[in-house]
Amino acid sequence: MVEPLPHVREIPPYVPGKPPPARPGLTSYKLSSNENPYPPLPGVLAAAEQAVASMNRYPDMGCALLYDALAAKLGVQVDQLAAGTGSVALIYHLLSAYCGPGDEVVHAWRSFEAYPIAVTAAGAAGVKVPVTADGRHDLDAMAAAITERTKVVLVCTPNNPTGPALTHAEVATFVAAVPAHVVVVVDEAYLEFVRMADPVDGLALVRDHANVVLLRTFSKAYGLAGLRVGYAVAAPEIAGALRAVALPFGVSSVAQAAAVASLAAEDELLARVDGLVAERARMVAGITAAGWWVPEPQGNFVWLGVGDRAAELAAAAGDVGLALRPFAGEGVRVSVGEAEATDRLLHLLGSLEPPS
Ligand code: PMP
């Protein structure tokens, strides 16, 4: 028998959001993976199709057009950027570049479920710092959890799956307290959905700190989840390390072309995000009116902290054609999608007893 390294057995499973069960005569909605409900814009689809026509060729490993477009949009240098097969790939790249066996990675919990998977796969030890009762990172506790073994800290804002975002002042104070040799990842997968006072200015953090890495994605606001493309912004030394360990040709030519076209169509895509943010507000108002409480959502999803009733609530939603994402014993995450899906959710919650 060929055995993998012992830590490979310790890797927790990634549970993907399931599609809703088919219900005859009922349109069903997938609210289980924080996807964008809008179909691709025609111009983005056309760019992707054009790239498909050259599928016999490898993609540009240097992602030149994508990096140029991102550098222009963000006002950074091209050597501060690193693209990946979704931002989840960049988490793997970061951890493989900066930590290994015996090292520690501090992150909030519950947070993005890929963190413990990637940390364990890197052979490192995860240090999970519980989020507060209102689903926020406890940054003081996270700072206190840093030891001489800590190599990376993962900060997720807005936090998946609980929803709240941190303020710039909170993150800036935290980063200032982290030793300069520890990499601070600010995972901004849901950045475009944030509507709050003093939002995180990630680019300012990168300007001020050589150990800060921003992770962003085309999967959510830009609606390219199926193509797998995300990017990191950091000091050139970190971006260079991310590029060095990356899977060669990891970002397909179709993904690169669609991402570049999406940046060109940004106004239209961000107008859609505004629509989703308005739908989020309607969802929260309805949930609250039904007597339920949710932590302040700043991403494209809301968190129902129903504890032991998570599986039961997800099953009840499945019966009315809604796929939600249960987290056993903790709660249920609901993505913001179509208005009809929101209506159905609110009707369902109105018929159930809210948690006490
Ligand atoms: N970070 C967070 C917080 C996420 O929720 C997700 C996707 N669910 C990702 C990163 C990864 O997104 P992708 O790999 O599609 O870019």
Automatic annotation (TrEMBL):
<dbReference type="InterPro" id="IPR005861">
    <property type="entry name" value="HisP_aminotrans"/>
</dbReference>
<comment type="function">
    <text>Aminotransferase that catalyzes the conversion of aromatic amino acids and 2-oxoglutarate into corresponding aromatic oxo acids and L-glutamate.</text>
</comment>
<comment type="similarity">
    <text>Belongs to the class-II pyridoxal-phosphate-dependent aminotransferase family.</text>
</comment>
<dbReference type="GO" id="GO:0030170">
    <property type="term" value="F:pyridoxal phosphate binding"/>
</dbReference>
<comment type="subunit">
    <text>Homodimer.</text>
</comment>
<dbReference type="InterPro" id="IPR001917">
    <property type="entry name" value="Aminotrans_II_pyridoxalP_BS"/>
</dbReference>
<dbReference type="InterPro" id="IPR015424">
    <property type="entry name" value="PyrdxlP-dep_Trfase"/>
</dbReference>
<feature type="domain" description="Aminotransferase class I/classII large">
    <location>
        <begin position="30"/>
        <end position="346"/>
    </location>
</feature>
<protein>
    <recommendedName>
        <fullName>Aromatic amino acid aminotransferase</fullName>
        <ecNumber>2.6.1.57</ecNumber>
    </recommendedName>
</protein>
<dbReference type="Pfam" id="PF00155">
    <property type="entry name" value="Aminotran_1_2"/>
</dbReference>
<dbReference type="InterPro" id="IPR015421">
    <property type="entry name" value="PyrdxlP-dep_Trfase_major"/>
</dbReference>
<dbReference type="GO" id="GO:0000105">
    <property type="term" value="P:L-histidine biosynthetic process"/>
</dbReference>
<dbReference type="GO" id="GO:0008793">
    <property type="term" value="F:aromatic-amino-acid transaminase activity"/>
</dbReference>
<dbReference type="InterPro" id="IPR024892">
    <property type="entry name" value="ArAT"/>
</dbReference>
<dbReference type="InterPro" id="IPR004839">
    <property type="entry name" value="Aminotransferase_I/II_large"/>
</dbReference>
<keyword id="KW-0808">Transferase</keyword>
<dbReference type="InterPro" id="IPR050106">
    <property type="entry name" value="HistidinolP_aminotransfase"/>
</dbReference>
<dbReference type="GO" id="GO:0004400">
    <property type="term" value="F:histidinol-phosphate transaminase activity"/>
</dbReference>
<keyword id="KW-0663">Pyridoxal phosphate</keyword>
<keyword id="KW-0032">Aminotransferase</keyword>
<dbReference type="InterPro" id="IPR015422">
    <property type="entry name" value="PyrdxlP-dep_Trfase_small"/>
</dbReference>
<feature type="modified residue" description="N6-(pyridoxal phosphate)lysine">
    <location>
        <position position="220"/>
    </location>
</feature>
